């Protein structure tokens, strides 16, 4: 599996959303935008049920770690969630598979990780940036770190237990750390 990156430029974040809508579907763009705002692993993001959403909070148990996540939903995430619920009131999953013929005759299921990975991969090729299902989570972590410089806060949001893992995960390079030391004079 190829290493994917955080999207570091705000214009590129918006471009990815636009291209997903244009080349794939609004649902793929919604996954991107919700994924950026929740910083969940793709397995947890795709498994969100409307019943996991309590007013303005998402409450779930992470599949990989078993840790409890209680996430405050920001206005952008809430707006997208409400629109999806309004468009698909009978859906159980936030990102429910409903387009292919097989989905009609089976019990409801979320979109697959593979479908999302494929969509992000094609957009990544187009914009010459390695994108994948972890890009949303990495992007959120990177931008939180850049705005706060608080690695402990990023670790808590990503529910990591090591600073080194978090720094590597968000793609913070030695050049960026050096720049921070150089620019901040006390």
TrEMBL record:
Tyr recombinase domain mapped to chain residues: 2-182
PROSITE patterns: TYR_RECOMBINASE
A Gene Ontology molecular function term of the record: DNA binding
BP GO terms, sorted: DNA integration; DNA recombination
Domain of life: Bacteria
Endoplasmic reticulum recorded as keyword: no
Keywords noted in UniProt: DNA integration, DNA recombination
Pfam families, per database record: Phage_integrase
Protein name, entry field: Tyrosine-type recombinase/integrase
Organism: Echinimonas agarilytica
Organism placement in taxonomy: Bacteria, Pseudomonadati, Pseudomonadota, Gammaproteobacteria, Alteromonadales
